[in-house]
Amino acid sequence: MNIKENKLKNNDILRDFASGFTLIEVIVGLVLAAILGTMLVTFMGNNLSDSAQIVNNVAKTYKLDAVMENFTTRYKNLLVTDATPLATLSNNVGTSGTVYYNAYGSYKVKKNGYITINCTGKNCTESNGGASILKVTITDPTDTQTVTALFTQ
Predict the structure, then answer these.
(1) Confidence band (pLDDT; 50, 70, 90) for 9?
(2) Which residues contact 104 (CB under 8 A, 6 or more apart)?
(3) 75: how many CB neighbours lie within 10 A of its CB?
(4) How far apart are CA 34 and CA 79, in angstroms?
(5) Which sequence spans correspond to the domains of the chain?
(6) Which phi and psi (to 5°) does residue 145 adopt?
(7) Alpha carbon separation from 26 to 19, 46, 97, 100, 111 (Å, rounded)
(8) What is the distance between the alpha carbons of residues 90 and 152, in angstroms, rounded to a whole number?
(9) What is the mean pLDDT of residues 75-102?
(10) Is there a contact between 145 and 61 (Cβ–Cβ < 8 Å)?
(11) Could you read off the pLDDT of 94-137 as tens digits, one per residue?
(12) Contacts of residue 95, Cβ cutoff 8 Å, sequence gap at least 6
């Protein structure tokens, strides 16, 4: 074997060692990946799991809107057919603090009563009583979303 062949053989061996990563490079890469992963988890926090809650709240609000639309439709029919439509609607809505699962939908009555509105200039206040404005406030059965409507004659 001559010197030239020996040199070529040594270059082939060096070339084999030159391909790939050293142990130090692999360890540094893993440490950097761990640091970046920790930063990502810290930054994101509960955002991914809490995003489902937002969608759930929108769905609950949509269902409450549907219940209130059912009340409004019923009230429009009562205006034509009933002598006391506000009193009948108030009875149909139910008692404050009670949860209902009926033809209107599932809801909890937060407020069902008559109010008066007194305005002085630009300031208006609400007080209980009167007979011409019915305030209906409903929530979903878990009390997370609320919808209010005023019905007048």
Answers:
(1) low
(2) 67, 70, 71, 74, 92
(3) 22
(4) 68
(5) 3-41, 63-152
(6) -125, 145
(7) 14, 31, 64, 63, 65
(8) 12
(9) 92
(10) yes
(11) 999 999 999 888 999 999 999 988 888 888 888 888 888 999 99
(12) 109, 112
Rounded CA gap, 88 and 57, in Å? 31
- Residues 6 or more apart whose CB falls under 8 angstroms from that of 131 comprise 86, 114
Cβ neighbours of residue 94 closer than 8 Å, sequence gap 6 or more: 100, 109, 112
Assigned token pair, 23: 């142990």
- For residue 15, what pLDDT band results from cuts at 50, 70 and 90? low
The amino acid sitting at 35 is I
Q: 119 and 43 in contact (C-beta within 8 Å)? A: no
DSSP alpha helix (H) spans, the chain: 3-18, 23-44, 47-81, 85-93
29-56 tens-digit pLDDT: 999 999 998 888 877 777 766 777 888 8
Q: In which residue are the tokens 């950097």 written?
A: 32
Is 138 exposed, middle or buried, given 0-12, 13-18 or 19+ CB atoms closer than 10 A?
A: buried
67 and 107 in contact (C-beta within 8 Å)?
yes
